Amino acid sequence: MPEQTHQESEEKAQDVSNRSGQSALSHVERLRRLMLFHPTLYPYKPQNVNLIFKAEKAAGNFNQKVAVGMTQVFQAMPTFWLIMAWIVLWILANATIVHFDPLPWPLLLALASVPQLPLMIVIMVGQGLLGRKQELQANEQFETTMKTYHDIEQIMHHLSAQDEEIIRQTHMLIHLLQAHGISPEQFLTLQASQSNGATPPLFDALSSSPQGSVASEESTVDKGAR
Fold first, then answer.
1. For residue 101, is it within any domain?
2. One Pfam annotation, family name (predicted)?
3. What three-state secondary structure class fits 220?
């Protein structure tokens, strides 16, 4: 018997929790139905391009790391000044001190020209790898722009839905005023006068209309009957 009672209490507690969950879901569903506009999110999340490029660079193989390293070395200005100093010193040394490479310096031309082909290939590969960051930035900028346009469009649709609801409620208020025998112009005049304190409150003005007096008499009769 105690086990059966404990099981029944657990079933009741589970039933209560299920009902509360269903009531909460139904409440959320009712709130969603009352919403004027249901936005749709753009399927993209912003990313840090620097972190992505750094991770791709760290995950590169040996050849890619060599290409990137040599590209960074040969595109630096200290490398340029070092090569220029070597060429100038070579020419001055052959013109003054030693004459192992006379004019037109064939050995210098050979040493300067032969490495150009492999260096050109390595530098082109390295520039392609380093240009990956610009590609990631361009893609991120495109997706961010598209997300911004989508959000602006959603905001415009939301504002349009609000305008429609405001117009609908305005028509409803106008019909209610006309049902009490008050035109919109009279309502605006009474509202302006009430803000200046020159006339009685607006409720008194509504009560002074035929429909308002009848409604007040009916409410008085109901209170007396109670």
1. yes
2. DUF1003
3. helix
